[in-house]
Amino acid sequence: MVATPNGFNLDNSGRRIVVDPVTRIEGHMRCEVNVDDQGIIRNAVSTGTMWRGLEVILKGRDPRDAWAFTERICGVCTGTHALTSVRAVEDALGISIPDNANSIRNMMQLNLQIHDHVVHFYHLHALDWVNPVNALRADPKATSELQQKVSPSHPLSSPGYFRDVQNRLKKFVESGQLGLFKNGYWDNPAYLLPPEADLMATTHYLEALDLQKEIVKVHTIFGGKNPHPNWLVGGVPCPINIDGVGAVGAINMERLNLVSSIIDQCIQFTNNVYLPDVVAIGGFYRNWLYGGGLSSKSVMAYGDIPEHPNDFSPGQLHLPRGAIINGNLEEVHDVDPRDPEQVQEFVDHSWYAYGEPGRGLHPWDGVTEPRYELGPNAKGTRTNILELDEAAKYSWIKAPRWKGHAMEVGPLARYIVGYAKGHEDIKNQVEGLLRTMTLPVSALFSTLGRTAARALEAEYCCRLQKHFFDKLITNVKNGDSSTANVEKWEPRTWPKEAKGVGMTEAPRGALGHWIRIKDGRIENYQCVVPTTWNGSPRDAAGNIGAFEASLLDTKMERPEEPVEILRTLHSFDPCLACSTHVLSPDGQELTTVKVR
Amino acid sequence: MPQIETFYDVMRRQGITRRSFMKYCSLTAAALGLGPSFVPKIAHAMETKPRTPVIWVHGLECTCCSESFIRAAHPLAKDVVLSMISLDYDDTLMAAAGHQAEAALMDTIEKYKGNYILAVEGNPPLNEDGMYCIIGGKPFVEQLKMAAEHAKAIISWGACASYGCVQAAAPNPTRATPVHKVILDKPIIKVPGCPPIAEVMTGVITYMLTFDRLPELDRQGRPAMFYSQRIHDKCYRRPHFDAGQFVEAWDDDYAKKGYCLYKMGCKGPTTYNACSTVRWNEGVSFPIQSGHGCIGCSEDGFWDQGSFYDRLTKIKQFGVEANADTIGLTAVGALGAGVAAHIAATALKSAQKKSQAANAAKTDEKTEA
């Protein structure tokens, strides 16, 4: 048994369970746990199993292009890296964006939060709580009654509607081709919903699949496409022309009406379906409060959604900024991404080398050299890993720390920070939910709390999206149609050397890009992303990261079926392509290995 | 092989009438650009064909292709997954994980040898013994080769699988390698784009299900029906290009009027894709319509063709006759001769108009002096 400095006990003496691939996430991930005789997880090892090297690719390129490269870090949280990138470049070069650009960017970022949270809950996470096969046993009439009870305003609630869905599901299952549901854990006792709730939630899986393609049209209008809309250093690329010559080819009344109708659809779905589902499903799992991990100790948020353009001071951000350490909600620390002592990355247990052990580097000075090697106690071979050795290097994810602390980031972290700071909207939402569910504040620090915070945040983001739509209209009404500042578009207007930082709150948590520009080109580019925080391996001191901490002490009904592991890992909405793109431009030339 | 429902069976069992089914076939024919005579053929195919198993694997990628796929409006993604194909392995969406996921993969390969479609999103990195992308403790390239061996055909989704995309941009640190350079003995359909348009993705799949053959491919292996024309050929702003009317700076009066984005670096003239016709997200818009130039994301190596804001040609006085030849000569290397000639010819035409472009050229000279 080992006690970690951040307050967890690890015991790797029990049976080792390996889950690889961890599915229903973005990217590639592996998880190993040790369970004791009672099936309780006593040790957890999480591993990022992909690496793409985007930062070395960025070296020497035009900083105005960086948004497009970094956007391709992730197609799920599409756009958030691009926004972070243009902010970093604007910060470095001292570029101010117009008010309309701030409103449009915020709408796009909020739209992503809503879309991502909905798709995460229904298409990546729901099957950890919901059993679609069990839905076949439901009484459609009772399902209809349940639906009307949990959400009286949702129009799709008749017995016939649920019977149709159930019939479709039945034929699907009877065909013998279970597709995506094949080999699921459908007779595992970890599933607790009655058949009617399973049928209701499975129906909403399909409704959400139809709806999500509507949500993203806000990106399409302002950015031309989704996934991967277009962005612009200095503002947004879409011009506004409400009633002049050629208005039909720009952001005009028709486009704005479409945005407005989508905003309303988002509000309706979140209020009538998403939030009520989380409350209903959560009610059946109210005693399953595993998975808190780091959330009751150390959480962090950079904050986002500035009310005014170019003002990132904490009081002006709708999503809160701050850090809480060792569970002290009385004190919320400010976070300064420029301070070399605050955000640092370590690689002692990552497949990189810094030259000296225990060294942490601020992203502006990041050095990375990939070094793939397995520890002496790993089982298997270099290209056929059976078990990892967590005492050595074991992940493509680095270990970022805030003043030496492993931190959890994401919707729950944002909501804990907001709650602790007395953020009015967040406090009201949290207290309302806890009251509805008759749960204490401590219930927040759990897998369920993470899932609930995401739903609350989606609802809050819907309201904010409307706020910025109204703001845009007001501003245009007052005669301002500007969307881009081109004063410093040309590289010859730039200083010879500059450095900047961009921060956002991605759906999965705090996201930062650090850039150095020299002679009009990118000299150094570093991203520290949410899943790097949450999925981080151990550091030299032995602190474990949020994924690993969250799995400890969880009881598995059947250790060979990883339902509980998936449930808790998914509550973070892991994004592995994001977390493992990292390589510093200062990195050594990589060794080429023979073609297989 | 077990008893598998046909497409038609599935639709009927879901309560879809014969009449609606035939209507669906007509719409499918129309969507694929086929005449009414094809409707009975489509109907027949759907009445007799079983749901085809699809294995969807993921290498180095960002999952934008999967995200695009679920945006499909016709047919809806849920109908594709529930009624048209049997998506037996897809690590982004499947319920099972770990051993159970691997078992689902092996089971499908075994049961449907030679009869399943392999869809590949992303690509295998070959450096570091392939361990820059690990699935089940092994290099992704091994899973790819194993799944490819018994596949009927392979779909390379997106720029990653087709060409390498962003992780293969210089200096390609992981040696990310497109699928066709690793799998040499299977028919491969490239569906490039970062990501491809949703309805192009479902269009390719439904074509294969409907006609039980690969779509006609161009020399690069792309379906000709979607990739045979340039964005520029069908761009609604094309008349402004021909008239020499260009956006000169972001958010200027010309941008507000929807003039051509060529001078802002638009890669529409060298990019083969369906964006300006099919458009994105149910036809709502496409990059040029929303004010940003095309970045050429469906072209091989588009990351390494200079800045997205560089003009395709370096000429300073675009639209002036004396320099029209230069346009042809300096057009980007990837450009076909025909394309270059086209730009030159159009430039000649617009030169005669001597409109805004000439003035713009002067401004250009001033700012670059």
TrEMBL record, chain B:
Localization of this protein: Cell membrane
Superkingdom assignment: Bacteria
Main location: membrane
Annotated EC: 1.12.99.6
Keyword tags: 3Fe-4S, 4Fe-4S, Cell membrane, Iron, Iron-sulfur, Membrane, Metal-binding, Oxidoreductase, Signal
Enzyme class: oxidoreductase
NADH:ubiquinone oxidoreductase-like 20kDa subunit domain mapped to chain residues: 62-207
Needed cofactors: [3Fe-4S] cluster; [4Fe-4S] cluster
Catalysed reaction, written as an equation: H2 + A = AH2
Pfam families, alphabetized: NiFe_hyd_SSU_C (PF14720), Oxidored_q6 (PF01058)
Cytochrome-c3 hydrogenase C-terminal domain location: 227-308
Subunit record text: Heterodimer of a large and a small subunit.
Family (UniProt): Belongs to the [NiFe]/[NiFeSe] hydrogenase small subunit family.
NCBIfam families, alphabetized: hydA (TIGR00391), TAT_signal_seq (TIGR01409)
Protein name: hydrogenase (acceptor)
